[in-house]
Amino acid sequence: MMTRSNYIFLFFLFLCLSLFLMPTAGILAQSANIPLNRDYYHLLDRLSIKSGTLSKYYQSALKPYRRDAVADFVDGLNADSLGYNKIDKFNIGYIKNDNWSFVDSSDSDSRKPFLKIFYRKKPDFVSVLTKDFELHLNPVIHWSAGSDSNFDRMLYTNTRGFEASGLIAKKIGYYTYVTTTNAIYPNYIQSWTDRNGVIPYEGFWKAYDTDGVDFYTARGYISFNIIKQINVQFGYDKLFLGDGIRSMALSDFSNNYLFLKFDVKVWKLYYRLVFAQHYADAYSAQGTGSLSGPYPRKYFAHHHISFDIGKKLNLGFFENVSMGDSTNSSFDLNYLNPAIFYRAAEHQSGSENNVVVGFDGKWNFLRRFQLYGQFILDEFVMSEVTSGDGWWANKFGGQIGLKYMDAFWLDNLDLNLEFNIVRPYTFGHETIYTNFAHYRMPLA
């Protein structure tokens, strides 16, 4: 049965597609995102910090990045004048080749394609590029082994699947990722799973062998521009907000989820609006495989606005709201307004939803350093803070970090120091429908 929230999501999807299909001049080709990957995103951070300025093509705190935006960034770098070393130049070439369909200066053609079909382009097992269709298809194969002093048997991870992305009619970008994994994890992961009933970063799982787990991973979305300044994505994946290792606002630690995302870039302003469907619980997450009905749904809205001050400093403000109840149908329409403070909407409607506000920022300086941080606030009473009694309802947290490129004048030695602190109960709330969690996993 269709609920009110289902209709809301379908309405927004229909609205976006309708605007897209209108004969609007100037609609540009869109791309899929670069999947969240710490090594890849570190390379982009390094290139941006060493360039001495913030990227004007994307906001580094709003992850994941679109491939076309990253291609514009690396294509505009003058590697010689900016003082990049040989490894930096190699990595610039690697990123250009990985996004070859959006880069003018890539060197992505293979000299000897396998059977003249496979790896005609260096990064793609199979690639197709025509006037109306583009495809990048790659296998996903991962196998690793190890040991743990708490286990008598070998640890391993065995993942198989595929990844596909591309463009349709140079207007709709698409992405899909499907894998299946068998694994025996180290003790600290298995203990966390036993205690919480879920595997970090993943969703439903089944028991495998004696001590292992078996699970599928699936992600997919479409991406397009309504106008040049507004990009829309609709799909099933995860997002990340921040420049740090962790995030006080929205991390990628939980399972994937359904989302509708708007990204707006105007002048020096960046704005992101997200509506998402989460799950308040997961009945069969213990690996029994027995379902007792649909997982209870909850809903999430998020917006973030930031502003570049000069070429090296960016400051932002964000709000998150988690909402729902046992009826699975309580998406508050007030939060669909992209230009309202969620806290004000909550107060005016007498809502019991959970709203968290916060600030973030970063500063690139001396072509070697980036200072970044976040601050979140849920509840705060100054008199209780100064009293020193440790009142439970003072709920807030903070993050501060420093990235140091070519540390101590040693090429390619990059350091990242980060400190996070958060008060107890900050992400908790009255029920599982309004706490800051999805699929039994924290969203921060």
Describe the structure.
- The structure is a single chain.
- The chain is α+β, with helices and mostly antiparallel strands and 444 residues long.
- The protein is 18% helix and 38% strand.
- The strands form 3 sheets. It has a 15-stranded antiparallel beta sheet that branches. Strands 1-9 form a two-stranded antiparallel ribbon. A two-stranded antiparallel ribbon has the order 18-19.
- The longest helix has 18 residues, at 4-21.
- It is globular.
- The mean pLDDT is 88.
String of helices and strands: HHEHHEEEEHEEEEEEEEHEEHEEEE
Q: Strand content of the residues, in percent?
A: 35-45%
Low-confidence stretches: none
Number of strands: 19
Fraction of residues in helix: 10-25%
Largest sheet: 15 strands, antiparallel
Mean pLDDT value: 88
Radius of gyration (Å):
23 Å
The total count of helices amounts to 7
Intertermini distance: 32 Å
Global shape: globular
- By secondary-structure content and strand pairing, the structural class works out as alpha+beta
Oligomer: single chain
State the main characteristics.
single chain; 444 residues; alpha+beta; 15-stranded antiparallel beta sheet; two-stranded antiparallel ribbon; 7 helices; globular
Layout of secondary structure:
Blueprint: H1 4-21, H2 38-51, E1 62-63, H3 67-75, H4 86-98, E2 126-129, E3 133-146, E4 155-168, E5 172-184, H5 187-196, E6 205-208, E7 212-227, E8 230-237, E9 240-241, E10 257-266, E11 269-279, E12 297-309, E13 313-323, H6 342-349, E14 354-365, E15 369-379, H7 382-387, E16 395-404, E17 415-422, E18 437-438, E19 441-442
Antiparallel strand pairs: 1-9, 2-3, 3-4, 4-5, 5-7, 6-7, 7-8, 8-10, 10-11, 11-12, 12-13, 13-14, 14-15, 15-16, 16-17, 18-19
